[in-house]
Write a structure and sequence with these properties.
The complex is a heterodimer of chains A (292) and B (279). With 292 residues, chain A is mainly α. Helices cover 75% and strands 0% of the residues of chain A. In chain A, helix 4 runs antiparallel to helix 5 and helix 10 packs parallel to helix 11. Chain B is an alpha/beta fold and 279 residues long. Chain B is built from nine helices and ten strands. In chain B, strand 7, helix 7 and strand 8 form a beta-alpha-beta unit. In chain B, helix 4 crosses helix 5. The longest helix of chain B has 21 residues. The N and C termini of chain B lie far apart (47 Å). The relative contact order of chain B is 0.17. Classes of the chains: A mainly alpha (292), B alpha/beta (279). Chains A and B meet through helix 8, helix 9 and helix 12 of A and strand 6 and helix 4 of B.
C-alpha cells in the first residue's frame, strides 16, 4: 500500500553464466517393458481378437445349438479340417484368382478414366457423369444382365467385379489428383512435364494417400461382390469358390463349415490389409511424411 | 537449349576482360505487360503495362505492397500465366509457357515432392528436363547440395527438414538446373526472422560464387535493398511501375548506415505516402 502506482522497476545488473556440462544427469531412460510391449499395434490387435473370440465362445455355449451358432472350437476344427483336406484352400484359390483379375482390370480402367479426367475437360465431365450414374448401382443388381451377356462363368464375375472396383477407386483417385498442391503442379510443369508424364511422375505419387484409400475400399467391395455373386449362381462348371463352399455347406446344414468359410474370408481380409496395404503405406506415404 | 552459356555466368567472361568496361547484355525483357485474372464474376487487372529489363547477372527485385501483382508478374515470366497484352521475352525469344530455362523457387514448403529424398529432388529435374544420365545428375545434384550446405542430408526425406533447409534444397535444385533466370517468389517469407537473414546472406554468397541472374519478389523493403542490385517499385491495384532504383551498394553490414535508412524512407514514401495522397 505504501508504494505509489508510478514506481518504475529497478535497473538490474546484467549477468552471464558459463554453460556447464550436464554431468551425471540422466537424459534418457528406457520405457518399462509392459509399456513397450503394449506400444506394438499387433499386440493390441491380437488382444482385441482374443476378446472377440471369447465373447463368441461364451455366446455359442449359452445358445447351445450347433446348427444356429457353432462354438469357436468347432469352427476352428472345421477350418483346420478344410485346410488339411485341401478343399478350403482350393476354393480360396479359385476365388482369389478371379478376384485378382477383376481387381487389376478395374484398377487399370480407373487409372485410364482419371488420367483422362485430369487432362481434358470432356474427360472430367465423363468421369463425374459415369461415377454419379453407376457408383450407387449395386454390383449384384447387374449380375442378371451379366449372366445374360457373358453366360454362367468367369466372364460374368469379372464384369461385376470391375463394376464394384472401378467407381470408388476412380472417385478416390480423382479427388486425390484434385488435392495436389498447386505449387507441386507448377514445379512439374516448370520441369517441362506434360500429359502422361506429368500424371505419372507428379500427380500419381502426390495423390498416393487417396489412391491407396481407394484401393482399400475397392478391395473390400470386390470381396463382397465376389462372395455374393458366387452365392447367387454357385459353381461354374463344377469349380466354385468360397461363396459356393459356404452356400453348399449351408444346404447340407454343416454350419461349422459355413463359419469356417466365413472365417477364411475374414482371415484373408486381415492378411491383405496388414501385409499388403499396410506395407505399401509404410514404404511410401508414411516414409514420405504425407500420412501419419 | 542455352544459346549462350556465358550470359548465365557472366563472371567467367568478366574476369577475363575485367580491365575493360565489359557489361552483361539484356537477358529478360518485359514490355508493357498487363496481366489479368478471373474471379467468378469479373476480370481483375493485376498489373497494368509494366515494363522492365533484366540484364545478365542482375539481382532484380520486384517490390511492392500486397495486391501490386508482383507474384503474378513473376508467374507470367515463369510462363504459368499468359499476359493479356504486352510481351515477355528471354534472349529475344517470346515466353510462351513454362520451361526449364526459368526455374522458380516458390514460397511454399510443399514445392519439394515428398516422395523423393533431398538428392532425388535435386536430381529429378536434371533427369527429366536436361536428360542427364543418373550418375551425372546425382553428381551435379550433390555438388549444388554441398554449395547450400546440405550434402549430409542428401538421403533424408523433405518432411524431416526444417523450413530453411527445405528452401535451401529448392535453391540448390534451381541452381543445379543452371537456368537462364532464377525466379524467386518471396522464398524467405515463411521463415523466421533469424533464418531469413541467414538465408539472405547465403543467397548473396551463392550469387558471388555462381553468379546467376535472379528475379526476386518480396514485400520487405530491407530485404529488397540487401538482396537486390536493382529494384522495381510497383504500386497496388493494379500494379504499375512506380520507380526503378539501384541498391547494389547495400549489404547486411549497411543496416544502420544513414544512406541505407534514407533509402528505406524513400521507398516507403514512394510506396505509401504518395499513393495515399494521390487517392
Amino acid at each position: 500500500m505504501s508504494s505509489p502506482a508510478t514506481l518504475l522497476p529497478p535497473i538490474r545488473d546484467e549477468y552471464e553464466r558459463p554453460l556447464e556440462p550436464p554431468g551425471d544427469l540422466v537424459l534418457e531412460a528406457p520405457l518399462p517393458l509392459g509399456k513397450r510391449v503394449f506400444a506394438q499395434s499387433w499386440v493390441r490387435k491380437v488382444l482385441i481378437a482374443l476378446v472377440l473370440i471369447a465373447v463368441w465362445e461364451i455366446a455359442a455355449r449359452v445358445v447351445n445349438n450347433d446348427l444356429l451358432l457353432p462354438t469357436f472350437g468347432a469352427t476352428f476344427i472345421a477350418f483346420v479340417q478344410g485346410v488339411l483336406s485341401g478343399e478350403l484352400l482350393q476354393k480360396t484359390a479359385v476365388s482369389m484368382s478371379v478376384l485378382l483379375r477383376g481387381y487389376l482390370l478395374g484398377a487399370a480402367l480407373a487409372f485410364v478414366l482419371t488420367s483422362l479426367a485430369v487432362s481434358t475437360r470432356v474427360g472430367r465431365d465423363l468421369l463425374s457423369m459415369l461415377t454419379a450414374m453407376f457408383n450407387p448401382l449395386p454390383s449384384i443388381a447387374l449380375l442378371p444382365i451379366a449372366l445374360l451377356w457373358f453366360g454362367l462363368g468367369t466372364g460374368s464375375l469379372l464384369f461385376v467385379l470391375v463394376h464394384s472396383v472401378l467407381w470408388p477407386l476412380a472417385l478416390n483417385t480423382y479427388s486425390g489428383f484434385q488435392s495436389v498442391p498447386a505449387t507441386l503442379r507448377m514445379t512439374g510443369r516448370n520441369y517441362g512435364l506434360t500429359g502422361m508424364r506429368h500424371v505419372l511422375l507428379i500427380l500419381m505419387p502426390a495423390a498416393l494417400p487417396s489412391i491407396l484409400a481407394g484401393l482399400r475400399v475397392g478391395w473390400a467391395f470386390a470381396w463382397r461382390t465376389l462372395i455374393a455373386a458366387e452365392l447367387v449362381f454357385g459353381a461354374s462348371s463344377g469349380n466354385g469358390g468360397l461363396g459356393w463352399y459356404i452356400f453348399q455347406n449351408r444346404n447340407e446344414l454343416y454350419t461349422d463349415r459355413v463359419f469356417a468359410g466365413l472365417a477364411a474370408v475374414i482371415v484373408i481380409g486381415l492378411l491383405i490389409e496388414h501385409l499388403v496395404f499396410d506395407t505399401l503405406e509404410r514404404v511410401t506415404v508414411r516414409r514420405w511424411g504425407v500420412q501419419h | 537449349m542455352v544459346a549462350n552459356p556465358t550470359l548465365l555466368f557472366p563472371e567467367r567472361t568478366d574476369r577475363a576482360v575485367r580491365s575493360g568496361p565489359a557489361v552483361s547484355e539484356k537477358l529478360l525483357a518485359v514490355e508493357n505487360v498487363s496481366l489479368e485474372y478471373r474471379t467468378r464474376e469479373r476480370i481483375v487487372r493485376a498489373t497494368h503495362e509494366v515494363s522492365f529489363d533484366v540484364y545478365g547477372g542482375d539481382r532484380f527485385v520486384l517490390l511492392g505492397p500486397s495486391g501490386c501483382g508482383k507474384s503474378t508478374l513473376l508467374k507470367a515470366v515463369g510462363g504459368f500465366i499468359e499476359p493479356s497484352s504486352g510481351t515477355i521475352s528471354l534472349d529475344g525469344q517470346i515466353v510462351r509457357g513454362p520451361g526449364a530455362d526459368r526455374i522458380v523457387v516458390f514460397q511454399e514448403f510443399d514445392q519439394l515432392p515428398p516422395w523423393k529424398t533431398v538428392l532425388q529432388n535435386v536430381a529429378f529435374p536434371l533427369r527429366v528436363a536436361k536428360k542427364l544420365a543418373r550418375a551425372e545428375a546425382n553428381e551435379r545434384a550433390l555438388h549444388y547440395l554441398d554449395k547450400v550446405g546440405l550434402a549430409a542430408f542428401a538421403n533424408a526425406y523433405p518432411h524431416t527438414l526444417s523450413g530453411g533447409m527445405k528452401q535451401r534444397v529448392a535453391i540448390a535444385r534451381a541452381l543445379a538446373m543452371q537456368p537462364r533466370v532464377l525466379l524467386m517468389d518471396e522464398p524467405f517469407a515463411a521463415l523466421d526472422a533469424l533464418t531469413r537473414r541467414k538465408m539472405q546472406e547465403e543467397l548473396l554468397r551463392l550469387w558471388e560464387e555462381v553468379n546467376f541472374t535472379l528475379l526476386f519478389v518480396t514485400h520487405s523493403i530491407e530485404e529488397a535493398l540487401i538482396v537486390g542490385n536493382r529494384i522495381l517499385l510497383l504500386s497496388p491495384h493494379p500494379g504499375r511501375v512506380r520507380a526503378e532504383l539501384n541498391s547494389h551498394q547495400y549489404s547486411h553490414d549497411s543496416f544502420g548506415r544513414n544512406d541505407f535508412q534514407r533509402s528505406v524512407a524513400r521507398i516507403h514514401r514512394l510506396l505509401f505516402e504518395e499513393t495515399e495522397a494521390a487517392q
